[in-house]
Design brief:
18% of the residues lie in helices and 28% in strands. With 277 residues, the chain is of the alpha/beta class. Strands 5-8-11-14-17-20-25-26-22-23 form a 10-stranded mixed β-sheet, with no helix packed on it. A 6-stranded parallel β-sheet has the order 6-9-12-15-18-21, with no helix packed on it. A 6-stranded parallel β-sheet has the order 7-10-13-16-19-24, with no helix packed on it. The termini are far apart. Coenzyme A binds next to β25, β26 and α5.
Length: 277
C-alpha cells in the first residue's frame, strides 16, 4: 500500500484501534518525505493551489498518537513534546544559515538551500520554505505554510498554520513576495508573486482587501480562498462603519488597501542587501 493510502486508513480509525507501530512507521516516512520536499501540504497545479489533504491527515495523526516525552538537553534546557514530533536534523551540507540564538525547525519541514533564519524564529511541521528566503527575527512559519523562493519575511512576521479544517488551503506566499515587519498572514490567504505587504498589515482568510487601482474588493468565496494579486502593494487602511452607531461615534474598521502595484520605487523601498544573505 502506498503511504497516502496507509495514512488515510489510519486517520479514519479511532485512536484506540490504531496500530501504533504501523502509525509510527507511516509518520516517519511522511516526515522523511516532507523534509526532502518530495511531498507537500499544498501544491500548485497550473497556477491554482491545491491542498494535499492526506499530508495534513498524516500530521494530525502524528499529534493524535503522539505521547508526551522528554527532549531536554540537560537540567537547564528542558523541553517536552509529543514523541512523534521532534526537531529537524540539519547539517552544514543543507546550505541553510541558522544564526545562533533560539531558532528551531520542526521535523517534517522542508528548508531549501540558501534559506536564512535569524533568531529567534520557528518553522513548524509541514511547512515548505524555498530557496533564498529570509526569515527574520521573531518570525513564525506556521504548520503547512508554503513559502516560495526569495521571499522576505521581516522581523515579527507571523505566517499562520492551517491544519484544520482538513481540506482548507494553508497560507501560501509565492516567489519574491516581501512581507514587512509585524505582519500577520493567516487562515489560508494566498499572496501571489512579487506582492508587497507593508509593515503592520494583518490579513486573515476573511479580511476583505480593497484595490484602489482596479476598484475591486478581494474576498474569499465558498470555493476560493482570499487571493492577493501579483505585485500588489498592500498597506493598512480603514473604512467607515455605516450604521448609525458607527457614524455617531465616527468608528472605522481596519482594512488592508492595495494602494499601488509594485514599481521601481517599491523595488527600491524593499531592496535587500545581498551580502546579508
Ligand atoms: C509598502 C512600502 C514598501 C512602500 O512602498 P512604496 O512602493 O515605496 O510606496 P510609495 O512611497 O510609492 O507610496 C505610495 C503611496 O502609499 C502610501 N504608503 C506607502 N507605504 C505606506 C504604509 N506602510 N502605510 C500606509 N500608506 C503607505 C504613501 O503615502 C503613498 O501615498 P500617496 O501616493 O497618497 O502619497 C513601505 O511602506 C513598507 O511597508 N516597507 C516595509 C518596511 C519594513 O517592514 N521593513 C522590514 C525591516 S525588518
Amino acid at each position: 500500500m502506498i503511504l497516502q493510502q496507509i495514512i488515510e486508513r489510519l486517520y479514519e480509525l479511532p485512536v484506540d484501534k490504531i496500530d501504533r507501530e504501523d502509525a509510527l512507521q507511516a509518520i516517519k516516512q511522511l516526515k522523511f518525505s516532507l523534509n526532502r520536499g518530495e511531498v507537500r501540504a499544498a501544491e500548485n497545479f497550473g497556477g491554482a493551489w491545491k491542498t494535499n489533504t492526506w499530508v495534513k491527515k498524516g500530521i494530525l495523526l502524528a499529534f493524535r498518537i503522539g505521547v508526551l516525552s522528554e527532549f531536554s538537553e540537560n537540567e537547564v534546557f528542558q523541553f517536552f513534546d509529543k514523541d512523534t514530533m521532534g526537531i529537524r536534523q540539519l547539517s552544514i551540507n543543507h546550505g541553510v544559515r541558522i544564526v545562533p540564538g533560539g531558532s528551531v525547525v520542526r521535523d517534517g519541514a522542508y528548508i531549501a538551500e540558501g534559506v536564512v533564519m535569524m533568531p529567534p524564529s520557528y518553522i513548524n511541521i509541514g511547512a515548505y520554505v524555498d530557496e533564498g528566503t529570509m526569515i527574520d527575527s521573531h518570525a513564525l512559519i506556521g504548520s503547512c505554510a508554503q513559502v516560495g523562493k526569495h521571499v522576505h519575511c521581516s522581523a515579527a512576521t507571523q505566517i499562520g498554520g492551517v491544519l484544520e479544517p482538513i481540506g482548507s488551503i494553508p497560507v501560501i506566499i509565492e516567489d519574491d513576495v516581501f512581507i514587512g515587519g509585524n505582519c500577520g498572514i493567516y487562515e489560508g490567504a494566498i499572496i501571489k508573486r512579487r506582492a508587497v505587504i507593508a509593515a503592520g498589515v494583518t490579513i486573515t482568510g476573511s479580511t476583505p482587501v480593497y484595490d484602489l487601482i482596479h476598484q475591486k474588493i478581494y474576498k474569499k468565496s465558498a470555493s476560493n480562498p482570499l487571493i492577493i494579486p501579483e505585485g500588489a502593494v498592500v498597506v493598512s487602511g480603514g473604512r467607515q462603519i455605516n450604521n448609525s452607531f458607527g457614524q455617531e461615534h465616527r468608528l472605522s474598521l481596519y482594512t488592508p488597501l492595495i494602494i499601488k502595484y509594485r514599481d521601481e520605487k517599491t523595488d527600491a523601498s524593499t531592496v535587500l542587501e545581498e551580502s546579508l544573505r
